[in-house]
């Protein structure tokens, strides 16, 4: 089938209104960049889901990171998105003015090298992410362990997508189908979605990140719904193997164990967090960081994260809450739904 | 956050690869994959998470060829 035919069919769709959730923030960004909403029928609604790990991280985690960044002889290393997320006393970026040592890293392996080169300093990695990133932290820990590096710790906020999708299926039953996250799926494969599709009778289709990938997946989901099907499918076969990446899954299991985790907007979800095993010398105290700052009464962050409303339906959107003066991480992160909608809003 | 970019493997040594991203060469960890020089790997956070077996254009053609007719 030609791309043009797919677009024509999606543009002319005149069935009942459908709500499809794109779980991954990178998909949200790609949908805006390529103008996919304008290519499909307004009856097919694309809803942004909870797939930005920064956006679902509670303030207590930022506060713990800040505590290490302010501690003498410590350097906190983090990916860029975390720098501006507000904690109780401001963001890590704000605290740099008060002497906090918070620096950007490009990969956890860089943290290992820095720790090896500067044994007098304790390096603490703010290890945020989903299954895509967890194996990289595990590999870095394995390397540090082999080399006997003692001045490196990880404060983790690692989450897994399967329990969050189950939560959404239980609590947001009006979502008709799921555009599944391509790079999380590289690690976990298709089997978790097969279980979800069988249990909740909805299509779950794995998508790559080009506009064509996403269009093909929307088309497939709409077609499945028209035919009364509810299957898990992989339309990103070039990168996603049926069983996932076994080496990655094995090394996650070697260093991490499941536990309850707090998701901003969703609450605590059992077995949705990955924590370093209890005896790990690399853990900087990652459990129980659940408390969140009290957001202003009008902030609808929680409703945005679970796709109950679009970001521009929040009364604070582009008014009290902007990327340069955010209330919640959804507006800060490069892959937060609010920030993406703000950057692409019509002026 | 889960963004990953494909790059071409130039050389391999001890669980690391030199990977070319449009002219920029970067060292990445290959502890999760077994690529050969010349293959494309998908890189996230300094780590190759999978080997890509096809060119992007070829992959997209196949995806569209497999789509079933709208009913």
Protein topology:
The complex is a heterodimer of chains A (347) and B (71).
Chain A: H1 3-11, E1 18-24, H2 25-33, H3 36-39, E2 44-51, H4 59-70, E3 74-78, H5 92-95, E4 102-104, H6 108-117, E5 122-129, H7 134-146, E6 152-159, H8 161-171, E7 177-180, H9 182-188, H10 191-200, E8 204-206, H11 211-227, E9 232-234, H12 246-255, E10 256-263, E11 267-276, H13 301-305, H14 329-332, H15 337-343
Parallel strand pairs in A: 1-2, 1-7, 3-4, 3-5, 5-6, 7-8, 8-9
Antiparallel strand pairs in A: 6-11, 10-11
Chain B: E1 5-13, E2 16-21, E3 24-29, E4 40-44, E5 47-52, H1 56-66
Antiparallel strand pairs in B: 1-2, 1-4, 2-3, 4-5
Description:
The complex is a heterodimer of chains A (347) and B (71). Chain A is α/β, with parallel strands linked by helices and 347 residues long. Chain A has a domain at 59-160 and 245-276: Rossmann fold. Helices cover 38% and strands 19% of the residues of chain A. Chain A has 15 helices and eleven strands. Chain A has helices at residues 3-11, 25-33, 36-39, 59-70, 92-95, 108-117, 134-146, 161-171, 182-188, 191-200, 211-227, 246-255, 301-305, 329-332, 337-343, and strands at 18-24, 44-51, 74-78, 102-104, 122-129, 152-159, 177-180, 204-206, 232-234, 256-263, 267-276. Chain A has a six-stranded mixed beta sheet, sandwiched between helices. In chain A, helix 1 (3-11) crosses helix 11 (211-227), helix 7 packs across helix 12 (246-255) and helix 8 runs parallel beside helix 10 (191-200). The two termini of chain A are 37 Å apart. The model of chain A has no long low-confidence stretch (mean pLDDT 93). Chain B is an alpha+beta fold and 71 residues long. Chain B has one domain (5-66): SH3 type barrels (Roll). Chain B is built from one helix and five strands. Chain B has a five-stranded antiparallel beta sheet, with no helix packed on it. The longest helix of chain B has 11 residues, at 56-66. Chain B starts with a strand and ends in a 5-residue tail after the last helix.
């Amino acid at each position: 089938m030609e791309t043009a035919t797919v677009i024509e069919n999606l543009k002319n769709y005149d069935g009942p209104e459908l709500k499809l959730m794109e779980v991954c923030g990178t998909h949200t960004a790609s949908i805006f960049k390529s103008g996919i909403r304008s290519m499909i029928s307004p009856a097919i609604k694309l809803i942004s889901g909870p797939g930005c790990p920064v956006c679902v991280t509670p303030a207590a985690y930022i506060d713990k990171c800040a505590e290490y960044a302010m501690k003498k002889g410590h350097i906190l290393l983090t990916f860029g998105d975390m720098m501006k997320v507000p904690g109780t006393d401001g963001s890590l970026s704000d605290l740099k003015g008060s002497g906090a040592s918070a620096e950007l890293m490009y990969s956890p392996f860089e943290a290992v090298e820095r720790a090896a080169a500067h044994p007098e300093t304790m390096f603490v990695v703010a290890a945020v992410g989903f299954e895509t990133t967890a194996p990289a932290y595990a590999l870095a820990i394995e390397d540090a362990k082999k080399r006997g590096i003692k001045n490196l710790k990880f404060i983790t906020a690692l989450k897994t997508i399967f329990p969050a999708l189950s939560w959404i299926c239980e609590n947001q039953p009006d979502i008709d189908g799921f555009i599944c996250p391509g790079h999380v799926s590289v690690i976990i494969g298709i089997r978790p979605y097969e279980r979800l599709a069988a249990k909740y009778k909805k299509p779950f289709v794995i998508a790559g990140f080009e506009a064509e990938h996403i269009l093909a997946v929307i088309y497939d989901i709409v077609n499945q719904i028209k035919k009364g099907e509810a299957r898990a499918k992989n339309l990103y076969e070039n990168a996603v193997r049926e069983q996932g990446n076994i080496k990655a899954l094995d090394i996650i299991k070697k260093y991490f164990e499941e536990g309850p985790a707090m998701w901003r907007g969703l609450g605590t979800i059992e077995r949705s967090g990955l924590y370093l095993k209890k005896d790990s010398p690399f853990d900087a105290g990652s459990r129980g960081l659940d408390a969140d700052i009290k957001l202003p009464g009008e902030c609808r962050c929680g409703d945005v994260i679970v796709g109950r409303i679009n970001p521009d339906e929040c009364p604070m959107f582009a008014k009290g809450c902007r990327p340069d003066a955010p209330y919640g991480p959804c507006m800060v992160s490069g892959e937060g739904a609010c920030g993406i909608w703000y950057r692409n809003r019509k002026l | 956050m889960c963004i990953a970019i494909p790059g071409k493997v130039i050389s391999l040594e001890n669980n690391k690869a030199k990977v070319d991203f449009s002219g920029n060469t970067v060292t990445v960890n290959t502890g999760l994959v077994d690529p050969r020089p010349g293959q494309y790997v998908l890189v996230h956070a300094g780590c190759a998470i999978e080997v890509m077996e096809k060119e992007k254009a070829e992959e997209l053609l196949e995806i569209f060829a497999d789509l079933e007719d709208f009913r």
